[in-house]
Design a protein that fits this description.
Elements (H helix, E strand, L loop, with lengths): L2 H12 L16 E6 L6 H4 L7 E6 L6 H14 L3 E7 L9 H12 L13 H13 L10 E6 L6 E4 L1
Parallel strand pairs: 1-2, 1-3, 3-4
Antiparallel strand pairs: 4-5
The structure holds zinc ion (ZN).
Family: Belongs to the beta-class carbonic anhydrase family.
Function: Catalyzes the reversible hydration of carbon dioxide to form bicarbonate.
GO molecular function, one term: zinc ion binding
């Protein structure tokens, strides 16, 4: 049995029981949460999110990339979100590689060097600040006054705002 088979079995057992408002695609809290794909971050539980309340955008690192801006532009302009919460975390995989070492690894394995940035970082708070700044300076976004950055400690569960 693959893991996907396991998930499908769980889905069948759970049935259609998730509470919340399904009437609109526009998040009722008008907020978009950007975070890392790290499996220890349970975004919905962490913020007590119900169905229909928030957009949740995830990638490796929870870093604001062009593709995050693409999703945020749609989120703000077509689905009415006005606030952005960016949450990166301690012990992130992007803290354990460097830009060059990961690109070298891919190039050695494939013969191709990626054109995209790995977005590796040493200082998680500096990385959060950079992502906040990328949102604040994007010409494609409508709402840039409420953009807040946080670091989530995956071991203690503590959430700290980055100023
Ligand atoms: Zn991470």
């Amino acid at each position: 049995m693959t893991s996907i088979d396991l998930l499908l079995k769980r889905n069948e057992e759970l049935g259609n029981i998730v509470p919340g408002d399904r009437s609109s695609a526009s998040p009722s809290l008008h907020v978009a949460i950007l975070t890392c794909m790290d499996a220890r971050i349970r975004v919905f539980e962490l913020f007590g999110l119900l169905q229909g309340e928030s957009h949740v955008l995830r990638n490796a690192g929870g870093v604001v990339t062009d593709d995050m801006i693409r999703s945020l532009a749609l989120s703000q302009r077509k689905l009415g979100t006005r606030e952005v919460l960016i949450m990166q975390h301690t012990s992130c995989g992007l803290n354990m590689v460097t830009e060059d070492s990961f690109k070298d690894e891919l190039e050695e394995a494939s013969g191709l060097r990626p054109t995209w940035a790995v977005e590796a970082f040493r200082d998680v708070e500096a990385s959060v600040r950079q992502s906040v700044r990328r949102v604040q300076t994007s010409p494609f976004l409508l709402h840039k006054d409420i953009v807040r950055g946080f670091v989530y400690d995956v071991h203690t569960g503590a959430l700290s705002e980055v100023s």
